[in-house]
Automatic annotation (TrEMBL):
SUPFAM superfamilies: Arabinanase/levansucrase/invertase (SSF75005), Concanavalin A-like lectins/glucanases (SSF49899). This is Glycoside hydrolase 43 family protein. Keywords: Glycosidase, Hydrolase. Belongs to the glycosyl hydrolase 43 family. GO terms for molecular function: hydrolase activity. CDD domains: GH43_FsAxh1-like. Signal peptide: none annotated. It comes from the Bacteria. Residues 341-522 form the Beta-xylosidase C-terminal Concanavalin A-like domain.
Amino acid sequence: MCKENHSNVKIPTQQEERIFKNPIIWTDIPDPDVIRVNDVYYMTSTTMYYNPGVPIMKSYDLLNWEIVNYVYDILADNEEQTLSSGRNEYGKGSWASSIRYHHNTFYVTFGSLATGKTYIYQTNDIEKGHWTSSVLDEYYHDMSLLFDDDGHVYMVYGNHDIKVIELTADATAIKEGGLNKVIIPQASLVASPKEEVGLPAEGAHIQKINGMYYVFTITWPKNRNRTQLVHRSEKIDGEYAGRVAFNHKGIAQGGIIDTINGEWYGLLFQDSGALGRIPYLIPITWENQWPIFGEQDSSLKKEMSPDGRVSGKQYVVDSDEFDLTTSSSKGFSDGACHKLLKVAWQWNHNPDHRLWSLTDRPGFLRLTTGNTCKNIEEARNTLTQRTMGPECSAKVALEITNMKDGDFAGFAAFQKDYGFVGVRKSGDTCFIVMVNNSLGDGNEIESFPVNQDRVYFKIYVDYRDQVDKAYFYYSLDEEKWNPIGNILQMKYKLDHFVGYRFALFNYATKIPGGFVDFDYFRLDE
């Protein structure tokens, strides 16, 4: 079953047992959208200002996922994306993608708050193919794409009032004279009276299942949980009946998906403190053509099992020796093979490809400074990966011989309230430093001089019970690890609107042109 309207699919009356535990991925995968093409699942997620953007994740069992591609390298090249003139797109970038498959073509649609536009990308090869894009000169909030059986193409979007607008048959533009109307006015009111609405309904996901149109949204009533809603109608612009679909610990926002055996699941997410927004898989049964999400408590612990091949280890994060002879063939580049990086990496904002290399010194990632800035938030070519829960740690080896006066380089736990352990060069002397930005603008907690060219840094993050703390260490011999500075109290802040990431960085405050070499990035198993 390759079509995304789910026509004439089997709806089971009970679930087959299997074993899995939520969350299914212990890391920041916000705004997930998922499709099935035959026996393969593909998922997209929001990564905002990180590039390449909109990851394509693949699974055979809805549990084990790997990143296989990205939709774009960069979305725009303005001052906001290049961290120029004091501007940035933190908390913006691309939001809430919709993925669909129709007539052997994959479509991914999303809006950007930074550019104020909506983008429709398409490809015939989702894992390795070239994407073409069309641009709508308006931002359609949290849109969801639907290819209807009769050839019409719709996009459902909005907040509070949920709207539909019709696209051309090739899904590249708004259809002149096509459907354009509010279909679910004040959608939040099925969860709470108007005076108790906090966050109005948004996050639309539209699906057509057995001839019925279903629109899933979320709302957040005041002093209550973020709540999953569902509305349904027999016509795209007909009268929609609505109800609360799921109300448990704020797990909400997403669509539903069927397996090859006709089982159904909801793929939603939960806010999880500084770690970010993490995905949950919720079993679904059907009653009178309404999707019934699993029992609120027992469903999250129940032993269930969608069938299908198991893809094995989750490759959402990955260690890297920066050795092209061992780098994954699924890496990404800027068009040149010598720029290959493992696919788990994303740059903070647009990279400057002139200033990083894996070949200037084979076996090392070289980061060179190209401008001056005040702190890591303004730095170009900061390379990131997600952190993982419930706890994880990673370490790096760094060679600092070619730093210049005023340079900072090292290893960060990155969000608005970032912390890092690294090297600062002042004059002819290098200092190992720990910085805790939650206490002020780059507050340096501890520093001491170092007179060797190779140093090692480690960060341990603890998300258990949402304690959200990061610990920083250094080593001079790769064997004895010493704590440095203080503990970073991590906080999820809307300034950045993403979970904490490990970040490799090098920036200049005085003189551009210095460089450092990272020998490895290793996740502790």
